[in-house]
Amino acid sequence: NRSTLYACCFGFTVGSSLGLVIGICLQTPRQPNVLMKAIAATAFTGIDSITLLEDAFVPKLYKPTQLLIEVKCATLDPIDVKISCGLARTLRGIVNIYNYNCQSELPLILGREGAGIVVEIGSKVKDFEIGDQVYFVTDPWSSGTLAEYVVLNTKDVAKMPSGIVFEVAASFPYSATLAWTAVVVEAKLSNRNAHTKRILIHCASTGCGWFLVQLCAAFGANVTVTCTNKLKGTMKALGASTVLLLESGDVDKHLSHNNRFDIVFNTVGPLATEFCSSACTEDGRIINALPQKLHSDSFGFFLGSLYSMWIRFTHGLFGIELWRSNRENGVILNEITKMIDKKLLQPFVDRVYLPEEIDRALQDIEESNVVGRTVLSFE
């Protein structure tokens, strides 16, 4: 009857209201976003857009295989300037929908490598513990490491070599993994076959070039490098057998005697392709020791839309992350650690700056005033 219906409606309304009140009272309070310092690009207009932020949000774990790391030091690399000009922008814009710490395209935190201390671990992390001192590297399309805190997948992290400080540990993961990929994966060199190879490293003064020289020398190869006069002694100390000075006629004179190389590592890019070809034997190989070129950067609207749909389809249906390379940076860093512990590899830090000195650090990068690496300390 009507009175029973009214009673049911009244009971439902009162019960729902009471349940809502109890639910609000018992819900877990939302954790406030904590702020941190970070070096970021505020636009894709180049070096002038890079600045220090003091109100960036501290990232949070959103996958069980991730680590939250308190960054002690991170390196400013020339690739950060390229990223501030738009490198990897298309791919980053697509994959950021799976990164719950990225709310917008800009500002974009820069930095590809660093070192710090693990402060939080995901539920499926087994190889790391809170308090571990680690170093790490991340891809150009990922959010960067030049910040007080960073969230990374365990695949991009390794425990620091013993006996080195954070400034040194932060200075080489990105360059070392590039060099390892070029030497071991692409050139397939090892201590079993390198002694039979004549190797040229063109413009060995880059961060990657330093490790190319040391890796090839450690494997027993005969290493020739090209560099400027001021680095001649350094290259000899790193393991180069022959140093050809770019300012003199050494290079042309050497090649004119039909001295060709089995493997030529190009650290410059397309501008040096012709030279590297002339320096290589007929059956030799030219290997570009450079960051991975992203074809998606040249996609227009139509191709970009198709690419985006393909990535989302494969990730949604199969869980495949097409944007990640097969390279596991953490595995490579573990191998690098072994060689550093055996004194086979030597990183070199040129200057250490505070985040507030970012303009001075950028000036050094822009003017190529540094011999080693430029590190920012967040300690």
TrEMBL record:
Cellular component annotations (GO), alphabetically ordered:
mitochondrion
The UniProt entry, under Gene3D superfamilies, shows:
Medium-chain alcohol dehydrogenases, catalytic domain, NAD(P)-binding Rossmann-like Domain
User: Could you tell me which InterPro entries the record lists for this protein?
Assistant: ADH-like_N, ER, GroES-like_sf, NAD(P)-bd_dom_sf, YIM1/Zinc_Alcohol_DH_Fams
Q: Name one GO molecular function term.
A: oxidoreductase activity
Q: What is this protein called?
A: PKS_ER domain-containing protein
The record lists the lineage as: Eukaryota, Metazoa, Ecdysozoa, Arthropoda, Hexapoda
